[in-house]
Amino acid sequence: MEASHEHRMKTLTYGERKKKKKRQITQRDNRPRVNVHDYTIANLKDCTVGRMPGTVEGQQFIIEKCENMNIYIFDHIATVTVDDCINCNIFLGPVKTSVFVRDCKDCRLMVACQQFRTRDCTKIDTFLLCTTKPIIESSTAMKFACFQYYYPQLEEQFQSAKLSTFNNNWSSIFDFTQVPGESNIFLLPADLKIEDYIPLPTTEPFSNLEISTEPCRSVVPITLGTRKRTSDESSLIVFFNDGSSHDRAVKFMQTMKSEHPDVVFVQSSEVVLELDEVERVFGNQSYQAAAKQGPVIGLELCGEDVIRYCQEQIVNIMKGTTGLVFVSQNKTLAKKQIENFFNYSDMQMKI
Question: Domain 229-348, what fold?
Answer without folding.
Answer: Alpha-Beta Plaits (3.30.70)
